[in-house]
Write a structure and sequence with these properties.
The complex is a heterodimer of chains A (545) and B (445). Chain A has 545 residues and is an alpha+beta fold. Chain A is built from 10 helices and 26 strands. In chain A, the strands form 6 sheets. In chain A, strands 1, 2, 3, 4, 5, 6, 7 and 8 form an 8-stranded mixed beta sheet that branches. Chain A has a 5-stranded mixed barrel with strand order 12-19-20-22-26. Chain A has a 4-stranded antiparallel beta sheet with strand order 15-14-13-18. Chain B has 445 residues and is α+β, with helices and mostly antiparallel strands. Chain B folds into 2 domains: 175 residues, PmbA/TldD fold; 229 residues, no CATH class. In chain B, helix 4 packs parallel to helix 5.
């Protein structure tokens, strides 16, 4: 996750509110976000222009992405609107293979055939120039063309159709609920994204897609002036591949318990009320005693551990060394996969990659190189069985086709391998969270994601959280603070003894997963039911300065 | 029209846009930038790219009702449209009680962050510079992955009180990771300059190679408290968390490491060793920066921490007025004053300690104490009786830069570094710190 970007836009840090890098483009009126993009017939004509120009200059493969990216952010604190930002970015990116080498060129605001043909020619020229430094030509896994097809996220309510005033009123009402319930400060944000992407390639695909994402979130701060201490509690919402329907309150989307958590519908007013009360309780919570604990991890927390310790190490480009200078490589080397016996986790651990899951951030019909999306096993019954690979990598792991997880964050960025939704399968035997806790003698129940850090090969990690509850002899006995756990990926997943059944399954996710140089942002979901991990090392993070 | 405008061109374009304004107050910011990059991995070039961007931001105000609109289209028609749009948005906006109005013309010191050599970088130059790096790694059968990105551009502003400011700048960042083919050794180097003639990719590559081959055969040490020598690249990612958190409003509100009990702040208090002075200065020759903030406030040298004492915090114009103090904008650069020791002298004077060359995945664990976690990476070494004895396995640490700067032993000479977390450039000295807390071991190389 690109933390600086997030802190800056959410206003949780200190600096001025800034736009995140991925929202580049021009600011427009809210109404402009509702205007239709180019007609699909025009996009097909422009795409053919690009493909023909590339082929005529010697490209053996070409793809073109005509993208219109819309963003809206509504940012408030207490009783004030800090910023309302609408952005639109439109352009065309063309990728080719010539002389066996990749080349890429992009052009902003291109609506004429001449501009697009020129960009295609530039891409071929770059490929030919770079081919002099190449040792091994690019080899793509075969991919059939799909003709003229389309895919639309199954949203119920387009967030851009909702008047800005309604969004502002909702956030200000939420802020007011927080203040009434004891918060000293509250920052709240609505992020809304629409990607209108048209993809065409020399394989004979013309794919029109309409993708929506939304993330309501907040931070509530409680201060004890006498001691000068402060505590925060962040929203338990998840960023979702949904429209404004995610903010429709529905009792069936609520998971009750020590605090209410949410599935496919988020009740911001209820959650912020709890948050304000809990932030105050955290001020006087018991500081944790360092040591080994059995951890009961809620899906609102576990998603981030899955993301960092499973999603990233099983990206094939990292395994091969393409990210060595920045994000790092991976402990999950090819020999471990080839052995077909590497125990990534216990027998209870089944980890699945899925680009089709409804409501998830990663769901699309086709990826950014025209591959139809799918679902596949990464870890089966605890054993490492596969990676995430795209067309120019599939051959390395003996796959006949790509996994369909190629993505670019803008028309102006080169597409590359990005994480699919990676999720922990629910337990097969019926098990509720209450029944799971009943068996725990000395444990901590963690809800919500907090601080996170993992090494460049994804062995050693440390995670915090939002809410920590001490479990003694099968009962929750009170709130804890200053909790973080440290473990090693393989040890941790092998200490997984139980996973609750499907009734508890929920998605969490990252809106700003950073990778690559220059860095690109992608959004990805991770689902799970509550899971138990035995004997994990917990540290106390309290310090005096 | 050119994308990178001269001062005169920028001024005349801004005047042209301002003529369309019908608002009580108007402020226009304009920028243009050209960037180029080359990326390589597994000893081969993997991607290259170039980006040209220009942007015009118009802020219009009617009383305290403010609207902002931007455009990346530079035509008469677009200029009028963007001004009208900002005015329409302002009329629809609620009153912003924190709007302070535009500033009158200010005096700025001349600073120079623009170097022709950097602005004239070509794709061939990048390829040659990277080839010099690749030759060395290939010759030793080591795997290199690196990234070079250069930019040149300008920013300028004009407001309805005729405040005008202009600043051109250039920058190049180069970073490289070299790994041994069996994956048991890894070394890193990063260089950032305004003037590309200072960049020597071959000599930088030699450092990464030395760390890579030198880190093979790392031994595990027990986690715990150790004396550490932090190279500037490692120190930067810890110290920048102090720089990010110097905001007065957060401190006054009670939610900053600079807050204290009773609703007070630590302004005027000694919080770190008296040898620590942290300041910003747009005129620093090694780290030049714009002499003005986005709203036109002049940037001058500011001591944030002087001899260990919190001397200044950043006050927005609104917060300054509310508190009855002078506004101080967030700085455009940051410098940690140093001592005179060389890295070699620091090692020679260490009986038992650890040399940390790079840190990775730094995250704040507790905003109250600025407790950070992260790991060592790409070359960590055990020092005994003044000599580097052997490489050690990587550690996870949990440490606050505030506690760390209270445990200061020695400071070296500041040098320009690139943060591996934020990509920001700073001037940071190497430093020897006692009782630095490593909390667990990592198997990562």
């Amino acid at each position: 996750m690109n933390r600086r970007d997030f802190i800056q836009i959410a206003g949780l840090g200190t600096g001025a509110l800034m736009l995140p890098g991925f929202a580049s483009g021009r600011t427009v009126s809210a109404e402009a976000l509702m205007e239709p993009g180019l007609d699909v017939a025009v996009k097909k004509r422009l795409a053919d222009t690009a493909l023909n120009a590339a082929k005529s200059k010697g490209a053996t493969y070409a793809d073109v992405r005509i993208g219109r990216y819309l963003n809206q952010f509504v940012i408030t604190r207490e009783d004030k609107v800090q910023n309302i930002v609408n952005t639109e970015s439109y352009g065309v990116g063309i990728r080719v293979i010539a002389n066996g080498c990749w080349g890429f060129a992009a052009v902003a605001d291109a609506k004429s055939d001449a501009q697009i043909a020129k960009a295609a020619e530039d891409a071929v020229a770059i490929a030919k120039a770079n081919s002099k430094l190449m040792k091994q030509p690019v080899e793509l896994a075969p991919q059939k063309g799909f003709g003229e097809v389309s895919w639309k996220a199954p949203i119920k309510k387009n967030a851009f159709e909702v008047p800005v005033k309604e969004k502002v009123d909702l956030l200000l009402e939420a802020n007011s609920a927080a203040m009434k319930n004891g918060a000293n400060y509250v920052n709240s944000v609505l992020f809304m994204v629409n990607e209108q992407k048209y993809f065409a390639s020399t394989d004979g695909s013309y794919i029109d897609q309409d993708i929506h994402r939304m993330w309501p979130n907040f931070t509530v701060t409680a201060i004890d002036p006498a001691s000068g201490k402060f505590q925060t509690r962040n929203s338990l919402s998840a960023p979702m591949g949904m429209g404004y329907d995610y903010l429709q309150v529905n009792p069936k989307d609520k998971v009750t318990g020590i605090t209410t958590r949410y599935n496919m519908g988020y009740d911001i007013l209820e959650d912020i009320t709890s948050a304000a009360q809990q932030a105050k309780l955290k001020l006087n919570a018991k500081t944790v005693e360092a040591g080994k604990y059995d951890l009961v991890l809620d899906p609102s927390h576990l998603w981030l551990t899955i993301h960092e310790s499973v999603g990233h190490p099983l990206e094939l480009d990292r395994v091969l060394g393409y990210e060595a200078n920045f994000a790092g490589t991976s402990f999950a080397t090819l020999d471990k996969w080839e052995s077909r016996s590497f125990k990534y986790g216990s027998d209870q651990v089944n980890l699945i990659a899925d680009k089709t899951q409804v409501g998830s951030l990663g769901a699309v019909g086709w990826d950014d190189e025209g591959v139809n999306t799918k679902k596949w096993d990464l870890v089966k019954d605890g054993v490492l069985v596969n990676y995430q690979a795209i067309r120019d990598q599939a051959k390395i792991i003996g796959e006949k086709e790509s996994h369909g997880c190629c993505y670019a964050d803008s028309w102006s960025s080169v597409q590359f391998q990005r994480m699919a939704n990676v999720s922990l399968a629910s337990g097969k035997t019926p098990l509720s969270v209450e029944d799971m806790i009943k068996d725990v003698k000395k444990g901590i129940y963690i809800i919500g994601d907090g601080s996170f850090s993992i090494d460049q090969q994804r062995y050693n990690f440390q995670f915090g959280g939002q809410l920590f509850y001490e479990i003694k002899e099968g009962k929750i006995v009170g709130m804890l603070k200053d909790v973080a756990y440290q473990s090693n990926t393989q040890e941790f997943w092998n200490s997984c003894v139980k996973v609750c059944d499907d009734r508890d399954y929920r998605l969490g996710g990252s809106f700003f997963d950073g990778k690559g140089q220059p860095s690109q942002s992608s959004a990805v979901s991770h689902g799970s039911s509550t899971a138990r991990f035995n004997g994990v090392n917990v540290i106390n993070t309290a310090r005096k300065i | 029209m050119a994308v990178i405008l001269t001062e005169e061109e920028a001024k005349s374009l801004l005047q042209k846009v301002l003529k369309y304004s019908k608002a009580d107050e108007c402020e226009i910011n304009i920028s243009g930038e050209k960037k180029g990059n080359l990326r390589y991995a597994r000893n081969e070039v993997s991607t290259s790219g170039a980006q040209i961007t220009q942007n015009l931001v118009v802020q219009s105000a009617f009383g305290k009702k403010v609207g902002v609109a931007t455009t990346n289209e530079f035509s008469e028609e677009a200029f009028e449209k963007v001004v009208r749009q900002s005015e329409e948005l302002a009329k629809l906006a609620p009153e912003n009680p924190e709007y302070m109005g535009v500033l009158s013309p200010q005096q700025y010191k001349k600073t120079s962050g623009f170097f022709d050599a950097t602005a004239n970088i070509t794709p061939d130059f990048r390829a040659d510079a990277v080839a010099k790096s690749l030759e060395l790694s290939r010759a030793q059968n080591l795997a290199a992955a690196g990234f070079m990105e250069d930019r040149h551009g300008y920013s300028a502003m004009l407001n309805s009180k005729q405040l005008f400011a202009y600043y051109p700048s250039t920058n190049i960042n180069f970073s490289l990771t070299v790994r041994t083919p069996d994956g048991t050794g890894s070394g890193y180097v990063a260089r950032g300059y305004s003037d590309v003639t200072k960049l020597d990719t071959a000599s930088a590559t030699k450092i990464a190679i030395q760390k890579s081959t030198g880190s093979v055969g790392a031994k595990a040490l027990e986690p715990g408290k150790y004396t550490v020598i932090l190279e500037p690249t490692a120190a930067a990612v810890l110290l920048e968390n102090i720089f990010f958190n110097i905001d007065a409003r957060s401190a006054d509100e009670g939610r900053s490491f600079l807050s204290k009990q009773g609703g007070k702040t630590k302004l005027g208090e000694k919080i770190v060793d008296e040898r620590i002075t942290i300041y910003s200065d747009p005129n620093n020759p090694d780290l030049p920066a714009a002499p003005w903030a986005n709203d036109g406030q002049p940037m001058e040298r500011i001591n944030w921490i002087e001899k260990g004492i919190v001397k200044n915090m950043a006050y927005s114009r609104f917060w300054a007025q509310k508190k009855g103090v002078k506004p101080i904008p967030f700085p455009n650069n940051m410098i940690v004053a140093g001592g005179s020791a060389t890295l070699e002298e620091m090692i020679a004077s260490t009986k038992k300690g650890i040399l940390v060359t790079k840190l990775w995945y730094i995250r704040e664990v507790d905003p109250q104490t600025l407790l950070l976690t992260g790991l060592t990476r790409d070359g960590t070494f055990f020092i005994e009786n003044g000599k580097i004895k052997h490489p050690v396995k990587n550690f996870r640490f949990n440490e606050s830069p505030v506690i760390m700067l209270n445990n200061l032993e020695t400071l070296g000479k500041p040098e320009r570094v690139v943060s591996t977390e934020s990509d920001e450039n700073y001037m940071i000295p190497p430093m020897k710190i006692r009782e630095f807390t490593f909390s667990s071991l990592s198997d990562a190389v």
